[in-house]
Backbone:
């Protein structure tokens, strides 16, 4: 898992496009809610939740990074699987 939530729970980063992020989380959060946690490096991460869907025993959360620096976005992007082509599920079909 890439993220540890406060006070409990974990998440893996599935996609990132600008400020938009998709995560697979062990805990749910209602749309409009905020999740606060840390990356494995210790960097602080805050996400404003746009949607949360149950996917078996985990929850797919789509949201917006709050006050994320370029360095933090680059650190998160580095967590994406190689060959994922970047944003993953957030890629728009133009």
Residues:
């Amino acid at each position: 898992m890439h993220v540890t939530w406060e006070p409990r729970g974990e998440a893996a980063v599935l996609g990132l496009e600008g400020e938009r992020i998709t995560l697979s989380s062990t805990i749910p959060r209602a749309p409009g809610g905020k999740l606060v946690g840390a990356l494995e490096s210790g960097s602080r991460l805050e996400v404003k939740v746009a949607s949360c869907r149950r996917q078996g025993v985990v929850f797919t959360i789509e949201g917006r990074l709050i006050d994320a620096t370029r360095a933090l976005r680059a650190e998160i992007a580095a967590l994406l699987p190689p060959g994922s082509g970047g944003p993953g599920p957030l890629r728009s079909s133009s």
